[in-house]
Amino acid sequence: MSWHNKAAALKPDGRAVIDGQRVAAADGETFDKHSPIDGRLLGPVVRGRSADIDAAVKSARAAFEDGRWAGKPPAVRKRLLQRFAEKILAAKDELALLETLDMGKPIQHALAVDVPSAARCIQWYGEAVDKIYGEIAPTGPNALALITREPVGVVGVIVPWNYPMIMASWKLGPALAAGNSVVLKPSEKSPYTALRLAELAVEAGIPPGVFNVVPGYGHEAGEALALHMDVDAIGFTGSTRTGRRMLEYASRSNLKRVFNELGGKSAFVVFPDFNDIPRCAKTLAGSMFFNQGESCNAPSRVLVHEAIADEFVALVAAQAPRYAPGNPLDAATVMGAIVDETQMNTVLGFIEAGRNEGATVVTGGVRARQESGGFYIEPTVFDGVANNMAIAREEIFGPVLSVIRFKTEAEAVQLANASHYGLQASVWSHDINRAHRVARALRAGTVHVNQYDEDDITVPFGGVKQSGNGRDKSLHAFDKYTELKTTWLRIDPAAAE
Ligand code: NAD
């Protein structure tokens, strides 16, 4: 059966998962979820509000307090998380199709990247959890200080729509492995895979109540979760604007810990001594246009030395036809639909602003496939951009690249760092001194040298400045979902015989 036929036969379930059960909203309300591929209605989705969030938090709290999960030996949690990962892989086709229908990414990427990455993440944290030891502090002879990692309790997870399953798994993996209970609110633009993940977790044997999912709007379900007095921490991924709100919610409620993974405007710095400019241009186009440019770490701000700028821009523009938007359900499509009409119009608005501010569209710059009823934009390259233009300052979150020219290394570093974001950056140079010097000087959570696409669950991911705090992935992610606890024991000196 083709993916189109499979999609036509699929009836996604938009009910919440609370305490291991599929449930309607307390007030019965739903919202309609449409596919960005062609605008078709996918179905009604629970419009969660305070009452639903409250029910989910109560379920998570009860699961945490009675020890049905946190109290299990780490080796048992490990086995169950591994089974959860196996269930994800076994449901690969269904999950990939849901992800594609929900947010418009190509089915080939959902199958090759999103599902396996989510499964690997859950499996990796499960695998890690019975290998983490506590500490004994080097105190004096009459006392023993044990330093242990305790789960924080109930973790609220709020995630965006660009990689719905991967973003959820980056929080779920470490939070669940550490013994926490979770209430997850997916984006209203991509609720389906998170809901299915919660069912698969229960099927894998993770006790009901440990992982709940309540869909709904940010200002309703999201706000209720982040303001809840019985939520101990928030793992948030989304825009810097909403990340700011998360800090406000915490300060207005119970000072819950807030970990924000936010936006980016990552600089991609190309020096003329890099000896394979075609490879560099190809990597740039691939990283920029992957996922329709809807990636927090997309290298959307390209700084290129003036000596090679004309050649480089032509090489990047020549890549654009490879990324012509297509129907995401066609197996050959590499660039799919923008998540919805609002986001498409935001991106087109930035393109308009770029033109008005005097930058030049080298390729793209227009809507595509309008007759499909869906939302598509041609891969777009702007040349002649200045760093103070909106298209260089703001995160566009669509397939739009801005090229800025520089004359000296010092100028390149100054321009790269002149951003309130600091998620990722890259430097392209075969001068080893320059590569190290610039990599050190770039203010970003991750710097790539002479490549952009390396990524692994073993390495931390996160940003500096207004790109957020804390790190997803790697063992460092446990820092977010555990508290250090000190236990002092007195050791009496030997009694005199
Ligand atoms: P968003 O901030 O609009 O929404 C993210 C989540 O927050 C959604 O679930 C949404 O419903 C919820 N939300 C929105 N308003 C809320 C409110 N007032 N109160 C509580 N919750 C609220 O972001 P988005 O458009 O879904 O996602 C795109 C953003 O995510 C981009 O800025 C991107 O860079 C960022 N992102 C960052 C990373 C990272 O690891 N740093 C990864 C992926 C995406």
Features:
497 residues, alpha/beta, 7-stranded mixed beta sheet, 5-stranded parallel beta sheet, 20% strand
Provide the fold topology:
Layout: H1 3-9, E1 16-18, E2 21-23, E3 30-34, E4 41-46, H2 50-65, H3 74-90, H4 92-103, H5 107-128, E5 135-136, E6 143-151, E7 154-158, H6 164-177, E8 181-185, H7 192-203, E9 211-213, H8 218-227, E10 233-237, H9 240-252, E11 257-261, E12 267-270, H10 277-289, E13 301-305, H11 309-319, H12 341-356, E14 360-363, E15 367-368, E16 376-377, E17 380-383, H13 390-393, E18 400-406, H14 409-417, E19 424-428, H15 432-441, E20 446-449, H16 478-481, E21 482-490
Parallel strand pairs: 7-8, 7-10, 8-9, 10-11, 12-13, 12-19, 13-18, 17-18, 19-20
Antiparallel strand pairs: 1-2, 3-4, 5-6, 6-21, 14-17, 15-16
Helix pairs in contact: 2-8, 3-5, 3-7, 4-5, 5-6, 10-11
Bound molecules: nicotinamide-adenine-dinucleotide.
Nicotinamide-adenine-dinucleotide (NAD) is lined by residues 158-162, 167, 185, 187-188, 218-219, 222-223, 226, 237-239, 242, 245, 261-264, 296, 395, 397, 423, 463, 468.
